[in-house]
Every structure is written in structure tokens, then in C-alpha cells.
């Protein structure tokens, strides 16, 4: 008996279509290119075309539909299934998925397919890891003049970086797109005198050989193999109808595969719009028409010139940046809907923008009934997303973030597991903060109050020791068992269950440490961390499962990412058999997604936040666009880098990317983002006036030129739409000194009616002041002070306390790294460990610069130029200083006793690391402190600069000074050397020598004042010039009046763009 699948279709009625769409639906032969703008119904028309062919009796096995991504595949399949009402559908997939089917169907790659094992497809992360290993091996082999590869010295220093490996991967992909080999690149590099291409060509050639030996393929190799196999492939032998959606995203290899597939097809229909091409970095081309006609010279073109998604105002805004490029206007001649409005909002800061966007979204849902899932926020770059997401969460807005392009190691659930395993693998490197994250995360599950209870229990058994350190020792310390036993035996009935939970976490870490020491397999160690094992179950998997079954999108996503991690671990073990340390290292340096993580959360009833690329092919009623600042969008900094893959051509080097092409790509991104909106498009930007800060994008000005009015919004939202926000408004009214008595009375009555939980008993700041049982500094012990902390303590005691004691300081990120790089160069040069060669030093800085995170490329380039200038100023100083260099980055210590303003005596231990110490002819040691700030301190402030004063104290005991001819000691005591102030030579600011015989000196007086503040714990905020840059402005009592200021300026009524 032969079983056959019933492919009989039950079809619904065809959708309504205009004459242009119907002409496309009726296409049954030839090669056809359909061009239509965003919102013209390209995908809808293509779905209707496929449905019509099936309705006419074409077998699903004869139809092939290809599009650009998995989400697009899913949406196309579901829409088509709704029209034909059948589970039997044609093949609908991506080019890569089809290529994989073709190759697998052929058995293998090679002249004798059946004799070989099926090839394995590499994930992006595996490609990165393989290339790094290959580079490391070739570097170790490249020793001496007879080596196979002659690495230029300037390239060798960069070759060990992960960014270089990513560039090599880009070069290899470029070669495959051009049907070139590593040998071709070697020849091209030699001909064009590009030694970096010669090196990259050798790497590419070795990579191809290793891939052949291991029988693995990457995505581009997969496409190449599919192109060769397609004409005889049984997978596509019956295909007669080919339909391509989003053709503008097709690259050279995709087009070649399409040409091979279309050889026997009766009809080919490709739809797209060159101005929606946003995946240029993946090989797509903006000039899609010429590529299509080159492959199919007799092709016929068609246009869709009606806009169905939105009205004229949104279309005008979306196309405004294109100036006279009329191709962008294709499809906007006939508007089938009369909806769609555009607004432009300018803000003074990113925080302000995020708060107002969140408020606008919440109001749209609460007041106007707009569904959450009908709204989206689209950013130019991934860096725009976190701030917006936090603001939405604070406003009570349900939100999901499109994360399909996040590296596996950066998935939140994966980070938890990797953090636990890393802690067990390297306990000596585990900080107290890492342990606290484990205990308060989903595995430990302790809240803040429970952490305090455990801390109190630990301090009770070991008084005088910091609770954070004790917590670390409890989990990974050598005396962990003793601490557990001591707190368990304490007579504290409230700690029983909590102590058991903490003991289970400590036991799990110990179990993992044993497994790692015994060289357990990576999947087994991962399973123990995930489940807790038989002895230490923590319940996180069960909680995630329950949340997923309750339709939690984030729980689904977390489970998907954990499954992807297990799959990656299994493949890693099969491939290498290496231990957990190597696995952690591989994931740490992974820069691309290793596994697809489900995007089902994007269907949840929530506002969606994503980048432009992730918004492709989707639409919402209301869209907010963020990131429209000049230099960020458009970002016209050349994408090329060290290897300049974009300049590799066939038979010669090409000019690469030019500013015009970059601007076209940025316009496309804006066009795509703006055309995602159906009813309301809100463009947002930062406008910091003429102060040198962020400025609105040129695209904003383009849109405004079409009489679309912008408005400037200042301050922060005052009105909240949530219940808690309403209570906050009433409380602000009660505290507002300008509010009338009647208004305050009404606010108080409303708070009373709102019931328990919002009254004064729940308000912060109204409870009686408490006294800590444990002083900030232990009594009868010397106070410790460093050079950098004295001035900050006296300037604002509250900020000092929050930074130093609470550890609430916001990381300065790239700014701190800038200074670290310049200081490191200064140290190495001074010690003679680095030549004073500016070009060599610049290359060294460039190699380290890739690790710094900046919001935009232009900022990175500007700061890099500043770093070059700072090093030049340092080299000038190093050559011209009249004193002799003694030491760099040396640690010095001393002790002294000072008198506080209240008359008590305090011993202070001073310590500091001095950037540089020099000696004068007189024998006096001089402390030099290099500064990388953009403005130097005033002369009056320098005279009593606390940091320099402490440095003089640190060198006091080492001074042997000869008096001058008049019997006077030299006046030079310490100096700041400004390396970032705009000047042609280094600016040296001298602090006169302190006469320590004249006691108390000004520095001793300052230290006394600081000691009294610490002992009295009077950490009172002080208004000072640094307040405008302080991270604690929103919670500082001296700045509280700002919460009552909010102003909205309509630019149509004012010629002044400045922010109030």
C-alpha cells in the first residue's frame, strides 16, 4: 500500500486589490521586479499572488517563497495560511535555510557526495572562536624571516584583539561574496602594497583548508555550495514559481543562488524598495534594480504607487531627508487612507526624553485606549534601548525588547548561570559584589531585608568585619563551613529558613567547585548550576516554567536562551572536549548570537522597543523614534577599519564606502523607522543649545522644512498616569511652597480617600532620624585618607558618602578608561619601557581604543584625537622638564596627627599613588599629577588643592633640601600637568611648597575639618560648581526645587530654540 499526503486546498476568497496590485497577482510568467514604497502593500500583494496560484491548482511543492528573516517567514506563513485555510503550504523560508536544505539533500559537499559525512553548519559564535584560534596559531608560527606569514609589526600588536578577529571574519565573508579566495587576496595585497591584506589572505586560505578538513561550513560557504548544487538538487527540482519578498536585502551570493533556482522556473516575482535596504552590513545592495537586471536581462518592472498604511503627513516626514531623490517618493502619489500625524519633540537630556516618551505611551493607553502592543519605540542603535526600557518600567508600562541579535552570553538568564559557574571556577577572583548578585538573583532569591538579616547574623559572630566581606567568605571563603555553622547555631528563630537557603547556595557552589576540580563535563556542570543538583535545588527552573505557562513572554525567552546555552555546551564538548574554563572563555568573547532565541515575546500585550533593523517589515499604530541627534543619526563616520574589507574588489582595490553612500544608508534607516507608524509618528531628539552638547539631527531640520512644527520640552513629566504617580502628584502639591492653601487641602483630601499605602505613614523622609549601630569609621582607629578623597569630602560630604561608603557611584566608563590609557603611556615612557615614538604610541592607543564604549562613532573618534594630543603634550613635557625623573605610579604612605575644629586630636593615615616624582637640583622631590580634564582649576583654587597638598605630605619625610644663596627653601612643591587643555604645549600649574615648620599648615587644617565630618557623620550636601554634573541630583535636597519646574515651548510661537 502506498500512502500519499492529501494536498487538496480549501481556499478563501481573494483579498481586494487595486489595479496595480491585481496586475502583480496575475503574473504567471517571466522575471518580474516589483518596486513599491513602504506601506504600498508589497508583502500583502505577494501573499495574495501565492494564494491565487494555489487557488488555481498549482501544487504547493512547485512554489518557493523566500524572504530575509525568521520573523518575516513566520508572518508570511501565518498570513498565507489564513487565506488558503490549509496546513499544507509551499516552502517559505530564508535563503540560508533553503541553502542548508539543498546541501543536506545532496548529502555533502564534494565530488563524491554519498561517500562523505554530512557537513556541520557553524554558528556565528563558533566562527569567531575558530578564527581567533587560527590567528593565534599563525602568530605563534610567524617567527623569523623564513616564516610563512610576515606580520607587519604594527599589525601584530592588533592581531590578538577580538576586534581584529571580527574584521578577519568580515574579510572572509567579503571574499566569498566576490567568489574570491585567500590566494586572490594575497595577490591583491601584494599588487596594491597592502600587507594587511596579504596577512588576511593567508588566514582566509588556512581557514578554508581547516573547514574542508573538519567538514564544516559557514553561512557564505553554505550559499556557495548551494549555488553549485541547485541545478540538480531534488529539493528544488519541482519548483516552477518563485516569489521573493524584501528583494532589496538580497546580496551577491543570494542573487547567484536565485539565478540558479530560476533556470527552470516559469515565473519569478521579486518585490522590494531600494530605500528600505537596511542590511548593507550583511551584504545587501541599495541598487537592487541593476543587480536584478544583470541577473535577468529580460526582466519586466512593475510599480505599486498607492500608500495604504498611512497618510500624506507621515509620508512627507519619512521622505524629507531625501531632498531631490524622487525615487524615494515611489508609491506616494495616491493615498488610500487619510490618517497619520507627525510631531517633533526636543529635550534637554536623554533621561528627560525617556521619561516623557514613557509618559506619552502610558497616557495613550490609559486615556485613549491604544493597546500596548500597538505602540513601539525605535532607536538608531542598541545603546538607545536600556534607558527607554527603564523609563517604561518605572511608568508601569509593560515592555518587551527585541533581543534576536543579542549575543548568547548577554542574555539575562545565561548571565546568571555563567556568573554562578565563573564564581565556582575562580573563587579567588570573586568579589563581594559578585556574591551579592548571586544571592539576590533568581538562584538565591534573597531580597534586601533578608540580605541585611544575614549580614547582622554574620557580624554577630565576627564583629568588626565588613558584612559584605563576610557574605563573600560565607559562599566562597575557606572558612565557609565554620561561618555557616556559627550562624546556624545562633539563637535566632527568624533566621532558620533563611539560613537553610543560604546554606543551600553555599553547598551548590562547593558542589560545582568539586565537579570543576574533577574535570566534569561542561554539560554536566551546566546542568548542576541550572537545577541545583539533587542536594541543593534552588527552584529557579520551576519558577520559570510556571511563569511561561502563565504566558510570561520574558519567561519564555529566558527558557529559550537557557536551552540555547545547553545546545552550545553540547556542541562545544563534542568538538573539543575541553573543560569549563575554556567554555567560559569562548562565551566571554562571543560577539554574535550563537543560537536563535525565540521572539514569541514580541507578540505579547506589551510595548515593543527595538532598533531600526529589528523593526523591519513590521508596523504599529503609534511609533516613537529616539536617537535623532547629529553624529548619531546620521552616523557618517566611515565603517571601515584596520583591514578595510569594503575596499576589496575583483582584480583590484575599490574606493570603499564614501560619505554619500553612508548618508544614503542613514536615510534608508530613517525612512524605514518613520514608515512603521500608521497613525502617529513622534520624532524625538536632544537639543542642548549652543553649549557644545547634542544637537538635533539634520533629518529633524529636513522634516521641519515641510512646515512640521517642533516643540521643546523642558524639565521632567509632572503628571503621572498610574495610581502611584497620582499619589506622587498629590504629595508634590503638599510640598510645593507656591501651591495655594486650598489646593493643598484638596490634595490632602484626595490622598486620604486613596486609602492605606499612600498616606504619610508610607512616605520617605518623615520617619525619625536613626543612629547607626556601627560607625562609618571604627572608633579609636586612625582615619584613612587619600589624595583624591579629601577635596571631594570637603566639597560635598553627602556625595563623598554616597560614592565611598554606599558605593552608589555611577561608573564613568570611557572617561575613566581615557585617563587610564594616557597614564599608562606616561608611565611606560618615563620608565623607558616604551619608545618616545609618537606614531608607535598612537598605534598602541588605537589597538586599546576598540574596547572603549562610546554612544557614537564620532564621539569615539573625537576622544581618540584628544588622546593622541594628550600623549603629544606629555612627550613634550617629558622632554622639556628641567627636573630629573625619579619614579612613576609609586605608592607612598605616611601618618600624622591633626586638630579638628572642635579641638580633638585625630591620627590620619595618608596614602596615594603619585603619577610621577621628580627631583630638582636643590634635592627637593616634586610630586607631578597628570590631569585629563577639559578645564584647568583656577589659580586661587590651586593654592590649596587638597590632592597636591597630600602629595607634599607624602613626600615630606623623603625631602633633603639645599637652601639657595639667600637661605630660602625652593618654592616648587607639587604641580598639575594639564594634558587635555587646548594648548600648544603642556600647561603646568605649580603649587608652592608647604612650610611644614609653620604648623598647622593649611593642608593640616583641611585634614582636621575632614576628620570631624567623618567622626560626626554629618554628611550634609553642599551646593558647589560640580552639582550640575552630579549623579545624585534627582535625590539631593539642595536640588529638590527642580521637581516643580516643567515648561513646554511651542516653536511655532517662538524663534528661540534654546532650552529653558
Structure, explained:
This protein is an alpha/beta fold. 44% of the residues lie in helices and 13% in strands. The protein has 38 helices and 24 strands. The strands form 5 sheets. Strands 13-14-12-15-16-11-17-24 form an 8-stranded mixed beta sheet. It has a 6-stranded parallel beta sheet with strand order 3-2-6-7-1-8, sandwiched between helices. Strand 9 (306-307), helix 13 and strand 10 (334-335) form a beta-alpha-beta unit. Helix 5 packs across helix 7 and helix 10 (219-229) packs parallel to helix 11 (252-261). The radius of gyration is 33 Å and the shape is globular. It starts with 18 loop residues before the first helix and ends in a 10-residue tail after the last strand. The model is unreliable at 1-15, 108-116, 326-331, 591-602 and 1041-1060 (pLDDT under 50).
Extract low-pLDDT stretches: 1-15, 108-116, 326-331, 591-602, 1041-1060
Determine the mean pLDDT: 78
Sheet/helix structural class: alpha/beta
Helix content: 40-55%
β-strand number: 24
What topology, given as strand order, has the largest sheet?
13-14-12-15-16-11-17-24
Beta-strand residue fraction: 5-15%
Rg, please?
A: 33 Å
Largest sheet entry? 8 strands, mixed
Distance between the termini: 84 Å
Overall 3D shape: globular
